[in-house]
From TrEMBL:
InterPro entries: ADH-like_C, ADH-like_N, ADH_Zn_CS, ER, GroES-like_sf, NAD(P)-bd_dom_sf, Zn_alcohol_dh. One of its GO terms (molecular function) is oxidoreductase activity. Its cofactor is Zn(2+). This is Zinc-binding dehydrogenase. Keywords: Metal-binding, Oxidoreductase, Zinc. Pfam families: ADH_N, ADH_zinc_N. SUPFAM superfamilies: GroES-like, NAD(P)-binding Rossmann-fold domains.
Amino acid sequence: MNVPETMVAAVLGEPGVIETVRKPVPEIGPDDVLVRVHRASLCGTDVKILSRKFFGGVGPEPGTFIPGHEYSGVVAAVGSSVDEFVVGDRVVTEAHRGCMRCANCLSGGYTNCLNYGVAAKGHRVQGMTVQGGFAEYVSNHVSTLTLLPETVDFDSAVVLTTAGTVMHAFQRLGVLAVGTNIAVIGPGPIGLLAVQVARELGAARVSLIGTREGRLALGKQYGADQVVNSRECDPVAAVRAATGGRGADIVLECSGAGPAVDTALHMATRGGKVVLVGFFGQPVTADLNHAVMNGITLATVRGEGAGSVARAVSLAGSGRLNTDSLVTHRFPLTDIAAAFDAYTRRADNAIKVMLDVTD
């Protein structure tokens, strides 16, 4: 593949500002793969990065940093040690690459790398601690890429990075979902994918809780047995009534809303499990005594992990995940500021906002 010397890339400016400029195409090391990005999408973490809250309000110098951690594309070049991929392969990224030398990484927990942010020791998170995919080209460590089957297009592949977070959440619970009552709080991209994954994993009953009727209706299409508008009724009472008074065996909190943690704890059955998937904007207050007195296990996940994106790709490759209807808006990379505006305002019920980077 003929790789140019420069590329179009979106870079952070002052807090809240992002613009496209021309940058040199990144060089790759022996273990790296140069990806020509075709599609990329926005998520809530990108909004925090744009505002610089992600960096504690400081962050990189304006004009130097390229965000973006959800993207797919084609292999444009490979490092000298790479034989897992060849030029022309279609791939999707996983954001996290641990140092692979600390205790957490060696036990498989690379999203909780003890050397987080220490590039000298090999840690990277695309678009967060190293340059990301809101650009025509991006460098990835070979371990962070998954080959796409012919049945999965670039749009679907990008959404599967979000599905990887859901897969990781279910694995983190350490239980079979078959025959369980599962409640999902928050019908955003993660929650709507969680409904589908829960159904594919054999849940007996899936409840979806939210406040937006359009998204709840989409969850119903995806297989939710019960949808609950929490503005119209008590969601805990509704889920308990639907489960014979028991509550949900598993609750996935995907909204990132502070009060939802307490809702999740009270929605879970005695001895049930709650996993926090969403990121919260501020400290949360919850009735942990209720969790202790009822033996409720509380777990967390940070993005995708444990090879979960590859499993999501496998599920989608067999036609068992619906991702098309999640993509509601499209913008060219050069209109990325407008894309962020649509996403943050949830304009026209924006769910996944996609960037068309290259053809």
